[in-house]
């Protein structure tokens, strides 16, 4: 009798989950990725909203293993991947979705940069500042300054988004881990609202995507009432 293992082989890429901060600039991470119709529809809705209203801030909520991180890698490479990775992403997305993302993320003033954050149980401002420092090659002094206050970090992001580039795409993967940390430690997640408001007023230069496994109120369940 023929064994299943003799006729089916699992690409090693699918033996581990995607990690956007580690996979973004490595060997093309999208080889073998299959764009599901439901994901394509969600990406189309997001890009169309960006074209129509320059909304700037989005959240994706879905279960573990639903392909959210892989979809984020696809977007990141469509918007700001290396030449090789962008070609792979465009082949996966197809002409219609590729064209739509070109309209949502126009390159009128140069290319785009991606700030990729994979959440951990640390302060939200610190992890975003560290990811931005790596993406933009900030000095130690500039990084420390961005960590002093939310306004300082947002100002630095907005400056980067309009300096010799068309914009910045900030992806906050595993955002729930950071929300849990802030809830347990009595921290402040107002940074998220501030970033979202600046993104919506950035004329399309700053776009933020937060990726969650459950709704905001679930993460805030253990926080104090005023924090919720």
How would you describe this protein?
- With 228 residues, the chain is of the alpha/beta class.
- The chain contains eleven helices and four strands; from the N terminus they run H-H-H-E-H-H-E-H-H-H-E-H-H-E-H.
- A four-stranded parallel beta sheet has the order 1-4-3-2, with helices on both faces.
- The longest helix has 22 residues, at 83-104.
- The protein is globular, with a radius of gyration of 18 Å.
- The model has no long low-confidence stretch (mean pLDDT 85).
What is the strand and helix layout of this fold?
Layout: H1 4-7, H2 20-23, H3 37-53, E1 57-61, H4 68-80, H5 83-104, E2 112-118, H6 124-136, H7 140-146, H8 150-162, E3 167-173, H9 175-185, H10 190-200, E4 206-212, H11 216-219
Parallel strand pairs: 1-4, 2-3, 3-4
Helix pairs in contact: 3-5, 4-5, 6-7, 6-8, 8-10
């Amino acid at each position: 009798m023929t064994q299943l293992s003799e006729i089916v082989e699992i690409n090693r890429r699918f033996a581990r989950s995607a990690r956007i901060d580690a996979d973004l600039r490595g060997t093309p991470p999208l080889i073998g990725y299959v764009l599901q119709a439901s994901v394509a529809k969600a990406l189309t809705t997001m890009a169309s909203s960006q074209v129509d209203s320059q909304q700037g801030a989005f959240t994706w909520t879905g279960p573990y293993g639903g392909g959210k991180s892989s979809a984020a890698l696809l977007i990141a490479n469509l918007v700001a991947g290396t030449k090789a990775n962008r070609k792979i992403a465009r082949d996966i997305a197809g002409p219609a979705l590729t064209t739509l993302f070109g309209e949502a993320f126009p390159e009128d003033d140069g290319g785009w940069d991606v700030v990729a954050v994979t959440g951990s149980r640390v302060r939200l401002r610190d992890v975003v500042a560290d990811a931005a420092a790596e993406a933009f090659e900030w000095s130690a002094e500039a990084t420390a300054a961005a960590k002093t206050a939310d306004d300082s970090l947002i100002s630095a992001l907005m400056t980067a988004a309009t300096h010799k580039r068309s914009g910045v795409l900030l992806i906050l993967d595993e955002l729930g881990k950071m929300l849990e940390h802030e809830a347990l430690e009595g921290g402040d997640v107002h940074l998220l609202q501030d970033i979202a408001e600046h993104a919506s007023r950035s004329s399309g230069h700053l776009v933020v995507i937060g990726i969650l496994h459950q709704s905001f109120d679930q993460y805030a369940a253990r926080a104090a009432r005023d924090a919720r």
